[in-house]
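Look over this entry.
=====
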Amino acid sequence: MTDDSTVPAPALRISLRERAPGFHRPLLEASRAAIAGLADPVLAELVNLRASQINGCAFCLDKHASDARANGEREHRLDTLAAWRETPYFTARERAALALTESVTLVAGTRVPDAVFDEAAKHFSESELAHLIGLICAINALNRVAVTSRLTPAPKG
């Protein structure tokens, strides 16, 4: 027997969008600017998803998985993103971006080793690399806002 009932989402603690729009809006704008500088929306969503997986941000996981699908991402890649190193599904460029994403997201423990940075620099121009770093920083900030405020995804169908 399966229990299909859902658990209610935790109550929103505070809405930074409403209470600190001068802070929240620029975070979203920074993320959009970084994505525009990468010119690869699927790669951007993979980065957003991987950081959100590490940070345990349900709201961002829901949003960026939907956005990835809307940009043509395939389910099997989304299903295996958390174990990207163990799959043949990701390009060398995507792997370099995902490794950098993990290292920056876990910066206190990794200190972003030269090898990780250098591998990313092989696959991205300096401008793209700067935008990639910006995107990783932006999604980490947005994850922290969402987790702290208890922003949750909207119920689905």
Summary: The mean pLDDT is 96. The first helix runs from residue 16 to 19. The domain at 16-149 is CATH 1.20.1290.10 (AhpD-like). DSSP finds nine helices and no strands in the chain.
